[in-house]
Amino acid sequence: MNDKAKVLIIILCCVVSVLFFVVADWSELKTQTYQLNSDKLTSHVRIVLISDLHSTMYGTDQAELIGAINKAQPDVILLAGDLFDVYREHDGAKQLSNAIGKAYQCFYVTGNHEYSCIEFDEMLDYFRQCGFTVLDGDSRLIKVNGQRINICGISDPIAYLGASISPDESTFSWQSVLDRCIKQNREIDSYSILVTHRPERVESYAASGFDLIVAGHAHGGQARLPGLINGVYAPNQGLFPNYAGGMYVLTAQTSMVVSRGLCRNVIPRIFNPPELVIIDID
Length: 282
Prior knowledge:
By secondary structure, the chain is of the alpha/beta class.
């Protein structure tokens, strides 16, 4: 092989490497759709799941993200935590909530990162003013296309560390709050959804009796090799997490959809673009 051929091979390898990393680190917004079926529903229901925004901006005034939501035309929007955090200004979360809060039925639970912010209570009040229903161990029975859907929500476990629920009970746990949601749900005959932040607590979810669990937190495992490795690392799951993102059948009754999240920051998302999740139920 002559020197010219060697140079051409080196150049080709460099070009291929650059293209590989450009594609791998592609972070444009993706829409991911999952399809579910239920005998409890007689007509189509469309849900948009938003998780782990961390106040990331998608265009001026969140135009790209809001446009994708409006294009989906959801019946309900579920927000599974970490909408904002301490490391960024909260404009991204505020602009999104202001745009969708009164346009759609929106149900929000906290994630772990929100609790680091001194503006935590202020932000939750802002979300409520925008039209969000903030769920914390409680439920709302709504109607969608004439059908009853019970939506329960539970805050991130960090919310219940050392918290007080009543003078007779000095502390309570995430599981005890989930049990309260389960009890509320069993009293209602309808399709049921639990909105939570952390996906890894599958034993509790599988025993809950909910039809659908929606969660986030894992950020898609940050790096993926599609078809081979679904995620490399996720908080509270460690290396090669089982629930990095996707749809999981937990029992014959209960399915779980985990969003890969919308956060874009200095940590690259390898073959793991941020996603807006659509769940179609028929």
